[in-house]
Every structure is written in C-alpha cells, then in structure tokens.
Amino acid sequence: MSDSDGNGSGGVRALDAALGLLQAMAALPGPASLSDIARAANVPPSRAHRYLASFLAAGLAEQAGRSGKYDLGPGASALGLAAIARHDFVNRAAESLAALCDQTAMTGLIAVWGTAGATVVRWQRTRMPVITSMGLGTTMPLLNSATGRAFLAWSAPAPILSVLDSELRRAAETPGLIPDLDATPAGVAKMKEQVRAQGFAAVEGRFIPGLVAIAAPVLDWQEEAQAVVTLVGTDTGAILPGSDAVTALQTFCRQQSLRTPGRR
Amino acid sequence: MSDSDGNGSGGVRALDAALGLLQAMAALPGPASLSDIARAANVPPSRAHRYLASFLAAGLAEQAGRSGKYDLGPGASALGLAAIARHDFVNRAAESLAALCDQTAMTGLIAVWGTAGATVVRWQRTRMPVITSMGLGTTMPLLNSATGRAFLAWSAPAPILSVLDSELRRAAETPGLIPDLDATPAGVAKMKEQVRAQGFAAVEGRFIPGLVAIAAPVLDWQEEAQAVVTLVGTDTGAILPGSDAVTALQTFCRQQSLRTPGRR
DNA sequence: GGAATTCATTGCGCAGAACGCAATACAGCG
DNA sequence: CGCTGTATTGCGTTCTGCGCAATGAATTCC
Known about the structure:
The structure is a homodimer. Helix content of chain A is 46%, strand content 17%. By secondary structure, chain A is an alpha+beta fold. In chain A, helix 5 (89-104) runs antiparallel to helix 9. The first copy, chain A, is elongated, with a radius of gyration of 25 Å.
C-alpha cells in the first residue's frame, strides 16, 4: 500500500530507499533529527538509522554534537561540486578551445545566451593580432554577427524574441546596415533556414570590418544551442563550407554537444 | 576475499559499496563507462550496474546517449548545493555579499574548493553587464584569476597540487598567457608569498580582459581558505592596496571568518 | 562483408544480509 | 524519582541482492 511510490527502478531496492532518504535530507531546510528524516522519507526510523550510519561512514552525512541531529556532510558538497563542474560545459569547452584555435590559427570565443543577448564568456587569442574592442561580457548582435546568427538559428524563439525585435527595428531604421539580410521576419526566417541547412553561421566583415567569423552551436539534447563557439580570423576562405576551419569548428561543437547535459 | 577493507561502518553493507561507487564516479575526471567505474570502485560490473540503475532512478547519475557512459546527474548537483548551503556559511555570506557589492559597486562571487578546482557557488551581480554565464559551477583557473590565486595562497598544498600541476604545464606551453607570473614552482611560490603578504589577490584583465578582480579568503581556524570572496569590476584603481574596495573586501572576509562553523 | 571482441544488460538460484520488532540507553523534565 | 522523548542495537526470519553466465548489441578488425 503505501502509495504510488512504487516505481520499479530496477535497481537495488535498499539503495533506492536510502537515496530517497538522502534526498529527503537535502530537501529539509536544515539539520534534522533522525525521526524527522525518517518521517520525511517515509521510512521506519530503524532503517533510517542504518542508512544514516552508512552515509556517515561515507562522509555524505554528519551528525552534529553528541546525540544530535543529522545533516549533509562534506562528502555531499564534494560530490555536488564534482557534478556541477562536470555539467559546466563552458569550462570543458574552454579547455579544448585553445587546441581548436591553435589548429585553425584563428581567435576563438564561446558565447552563451544571457539576459542581454549572446554574451561572450571565453575567448582565446592566437598569435594573430586580431584587434577588437570586445572582451568578456560583450554581447554580440543577433543579426550581423556570426555568433548571434548561430543563436538565432538554434535557439527556441521565445527567449530571443525581444532582442530580435529591437534589432529588427534598428535594422529597419538603417537600411544597408546588414547588406546580406532582408530585415523582415520573412528575411530572418530565410536566413535562419540557410544557417541551419549549412550547419554554421558565417559573416565576413560585417560586425567587424576586415574580419571574418564562423560560428556553430553546442547543442543540448533538445537540439537547442546551449552555447555558440565562434572562430574569428582574416582569411576569407575560412568561411566557406568545407574549409578546414569550418570542419574543425563543427567537429569541436559536435564533441562538446555530446557531453552536454541537458538541464541544470 | 576479505581484503583489508574491513568494514567498520556499521551501516548497510550494500549501501557502503554503492556510495563508494558514487564517490569513485565523482573522483573520475568525467563520464566513464560502466566497466571503468566498476574498476575504479573495485566492484564487479554486474553489481555496479545495479547500483547505477538506482542512481539513475534517483537522478544522482545520468547515462549519456543510449548505451553510453555514465556520469553524475543533476540530482548530485542539487544534493551538493543543499549541502553547501547547509553546513556552510555560504548562505550567510551571500546575504551580506549583496551589501558588499552595493557598497563597492562591483560584482561579487563566492567560490569554494571542489575536486575540479575553485568552484563558484554564489554570485551577486550589480549593474555591470558582465559575466552572465559565469555562475554556479564555473571553475576558475588557479593561476590567472584572482579567485584561484587566493586559493593558491591560503590552501593546503596537497589538494590543489594536481590542478596546479596541470595549469603550470599549460602555462609553460603558452608563454605569455600569464604575463605577470613566472610559470615555475619558484615563481608560484613567490606569487603566493606576495599575495599572502598583501592580504588579497588581484588581477587586472587577466582572466577576463577589461575587468579587474580582487579576492580574499574566508579562513577557518586552521588559517586555510574555506572559501574565497572575489569582487569584479572595471575600475583599475580598485585593485590597489588600501582602496575602498580592498578594505571593504577584507573587512567582509574577516567578519565571515569569525563565524566559522564551530562544528567539531 | 563477415567474424570476433568488448561492451552493457539481465535471469536465476542460493546464501547471506537487511528488515521489523522490541528492548536498551540516555537525556531532559515534571 | 519516574516519565517521556529521543537514538541506538539485538535477534530471528525472510526476502533480496549477489555472482555467474548467457544474451544482445555495437564496434573493430581482418
């Protein structure tokens, strides 16, 4: 009886119960007595005590004072930090980014979608004296940067809508700002389609005169961009489909995508 | 076999083994195959599979793809965050952090030492439009971030050794990556000394071009860093010893150090 | 293209382990 | 001094997890 809880996880029964208790501990606001934890986890106190003894031994839990309450221990922190670090694709991508930049001799940057738009969070210079005014935290334009276009093509429409609106409005006010784009919803849709079909976004000298850029997304399991990796250089040939730079970039993003967790 | 493992935990045997496997997963650098995990935990693969099934059901682990590798899941992150928030001063400090950020008009963040390195656990933005994605879980570099340097200066050598090694190696491969540091053990020792003498670590535009940062430790009773508080801003003057920001940061850290959890 | 190796995954039966119950120990408190 | 509230622990029963080995599947190698 007892409840709908009966999920057949297929694993170890005792372990399921124990983990439920662990999560119950995590859900509680603070240190709690054994009975409270047992009640919260819907487990008899004696069992809870056994489980807690194991958690104690593993460092996942600690008991305060003498005959006191239990709470999560340093092992839980360490475990969580390991999990968090693992889920942070920015760091991992950043590590490999240096190699990618070396390989292509281009400057690389990683951007994520922040509240203000596509935000640069890492960048890796090479020997190439690419002189730009952008740094970490720069938000890239949605319509006339490779980075922005990649987000446009691989993001859910909702989050980027407001930014898209304002950029479209600005583009409409200044015709010729974006030569290769029809600044209408239809034109945007067409561009989006083209970018997706191509597998990457490219601009030449649009956002920064004299420089070319290619950008590809790091996708999560929902096929949405969690981040965009961009390569910036001066060689016009690098932006053509099939070029070494494009191939390297896409390989890189595919690798990162595989390791990307979905949720946070 | 009765290896020397002699239990002594007094808890549930299967749970002990399972938790050992969980910690083995955490210790591994990234996603791993079942066999690898089983080997690392010194557990037969079939048992490992049962345990992992339970971890999977509990959300503590995730398997990538279909027949893919296992790694820690979102539940592990949540657990760790709960643990950190719990037995830690982080919450308390986080409340005061807002005030500190207001006072100095800088972005603040709190980092703790995880297995992967200095891991950001809280951050408080001000109006500075930066670092949108540097958030929970970002691991900071040891050598070229103020946060990392503060850990370097006030941590026991052992835990950070591996990270230090790899960063030194990378720094040696890329001269000029860290302009103000001699990437040798001697150079590190010197920097460490200087940071300790100064009472805080500072970088200007190193980890994040265009931004400056200062970091000071929250010490425990062993004079080791429990956490590091970092302020990030754009004003170059803020990183000078004796500046308002530095003073405020140090006062803040001293206060937090006093409140070290008197657990024992 | 076929075969062999290396994985992850899963039945099955037995032994050992965990569970429930209830007794114990200990603290605070009337 | 006894009562009530904890946490903790024996003990016997039975249920469950474990080892072994077969299966399925994917990748590699020839």
